[in-house]
Records
---
Amino acid sequence: MRRKTRTIKLGNLLIGGNNPIWVQSMIKCYSEDVESVTKEIKRLKRAGCEIVRIAIPTDEAAELIPLYKKECGEKIPLVADIHFSYKLALKSIEKGADGIRINPGNINNKSWIREIIKTASIYHTCIRIGINAGSLEKRILAKYGGPTPEALAESALYWTSFFLDEGFDNIKMSIKASDVDTTVRAYRIYAEKTDIPLHIGITEAGFDTYGIIKSSIGIGLLLYEGIGDTVRVSLSEPSNREVEVCYEILQALGIRKTFPEIISCPTCGRKKIDVIKLARTVKKNLKQFRKYLKIAIMGCEVNGPGEAKEADYGIAGGKTSSLIFSKGKILKKVPNEKAIDELIKTIKEVEQWEE
Ligand code: SF4
């Protein structure tokens, strides 16, 4: 069951409570490069990104916030990512960022943090507090002997109380370490003690299959335990890929079903059709289709007809011809070489979908 959290507001988006678990990514090109950032925001929007974060390392970047906000549109909040400089935090808020993300560990001066809180209150800006294993307070590191889960959680709880004591509660927390075990345990400790919404992810997860596996295990464990209100998969890959993987994790857990799910058999010596090629072709053709459908592609008669019948659409391969099913009914029997075209045509017709 999902952890009960309070609802906070980031731009026009409500986070926490019963709201969906929103998908976030971060701009990867240089923040001052208007053309590239604009293109990346467009790509993220096409991929379904729901919160866009951008690094604000310079005054020049902060000046561009209104322009980037316009590109994001009304529905997608823009979050300014700030390190070290409270002045850039203040400027980003004043320039209209919907949210800022700060790491108190590297701003390291309570009066500056109070100033950020004061300005954020005036502008109704959301603040994400980022606790990172790499920048924990010295006193906490000394107490625990290193960035343990307990140390991370203590820092997160300390800063939560600090913000709440200052009368500011439009906050979200993230607690990051680059290993799954530390991250998951730290989030668990924190989640038990507060109702503050959580942004989750495994930081610096890497790339390719390993990066995705590491993120999926960490994020998956937390989501399965009901922890997490916004999510980002941090990969050394294009930002739109992060968004795709986020949705895949949410869908695999049955939390948000947003795109066609292909149930395909692993194939074996009994296969009558080329399942691997067919499954990939279907996925490619339905890449922009934004509705949950269960599509079964099964290689033979062993599990084929059964699985295909359960699905919204399906193919069960036969020796020379395949059966195309929809919601339990056989729609067509087609020669194997035409099976995939017919399946895609059928889905497009029935679902009235045009690219
Ligand atoms: S459905 Fe048929 S081809 Fe596919 S793995 Fe099972 S037995 Fe093999």
---
Amino acid sequence: MKHHCCARMSEMIAVTCDQHPDRFDCPDCLVQYLLKFDEYGLIIHDGGSSSISIAYCPWCGTRLPESKRDQWFVELAALGFDNPTEQEIPERYKSDAWFMETD
Ligand SMILES: [Zn+2]
Ligand SMILES: [Zn+2]
């Protein structure tokens, strides 16, 4: 289990509801966490799946890690993946393993 800054954040990220299987459809779901990018975002309820990345926790004020989204694309490009969201990428890039593992 990923450790978040506070219990409130962990709760909000885990919010699911019976009426909205897709969290982006649910007005009660406010934040999402993308493990592979280490990115926290506020869900924008515009019918799509967009979010605004946030730098600080709205509840406890903790500085959140900077999104590794750009680095993710750079590293995969270096491995020859020019369209990683559509390609079969190494397992470690599907979770936080690619930036957690140090060698
Ligand atoms: Zn927090
Ligand atoms: Zn709902």
---
Amino acid sequence: MGILELTIPMATGNGTIPIHPVLLWDDQDIILVDCGGIDAYDAVEQELLSLDLSISALTGLVLTHHDHDHMGSAFAIKRVNPAIKIYASKLEAPYITQEVKPLRLEQAEAMQATLPEQQQAFGKAFVAMLRKVQPVGIDEFLSDGQLLPWCGGCEVMVTSGHTPGHISLYLEHAAIVIAGDAMALEDGLPSIANPQFTLDLQQAEQSLEKLLELKASAYYCYHGGIYIPKDIHTKSGNN
Ligand SMILES: [Zn+2]
């Protein structure tokens, strides 16, 4: 039984930055939480191979939300491993299956017109990339408070704001939160993920607060890595 942060590259306009899907496993299940962008399949596979695992060994894939950097390789994973169960919240599902136009694509298209000249090319490339995201079906909806048996017990927490149906996972027995984009780590401090890509700022702030109130010992942030809050003694000590 264990939990491990993976590291794969995400392409940006000028290079790559690391992003962090999370792997959870026990005797029954091997669950991947988020799976990188549209070109991330090989990098995910490499990470799994380095652990003596493979895409085919995965039993489940949780998508915290519909953003391309979290679900972009889900289609390729499902094609190689049709038995894998894909999980997401009911609110987020229509944007993942693309029954409804993804909100991120809508936002990017709407923003294109307002971008200054020097950002037009970037905006265009971003929209083109979002249009390449392939939809994938959801096998099971996850809802707030639902308890999953994975890894000794794993609670679903709705953490909306970044997107309407964003979810995080809470492993109470291990005091670990898998935050997705409900928390990002910037310069060693927890914050909401890029406000420019946050669809409801107030909700996102509340969700971040909700996660911090759990007083977990480790928060796995998709952007930024693992946040370990300082021990209360250190905070209230003589420093
Ligand atoms: Zn993200």
